[in-house]
Amino acid sequence: xxxxxxxxxxxxxxxxALYFTREEWELLSQPEKQLYRDQMLRNYRxxxxxxxxxxxxxxxxxxxxxxxxxRIPL
Length: 74
Hints:
Layout: H1 13-16, H2 22-27, H3 30-49, H4 58-64
């Protein structure tokens, strides 16, 4: 029996990212917004550790450069 190779990522970061509408985002407290940013960064780092080598998603770039208000795509 042949050894299995590394698992292929069958999901993209955008498939698991959580987005808020502008109205929903405005309802979040500052600690909730920070928790969201931290969790999205953790999710992205997990993807990278699993072999993701695509370009950095816009959401992650915005978080990394410290944009005060994230642009939420609809």
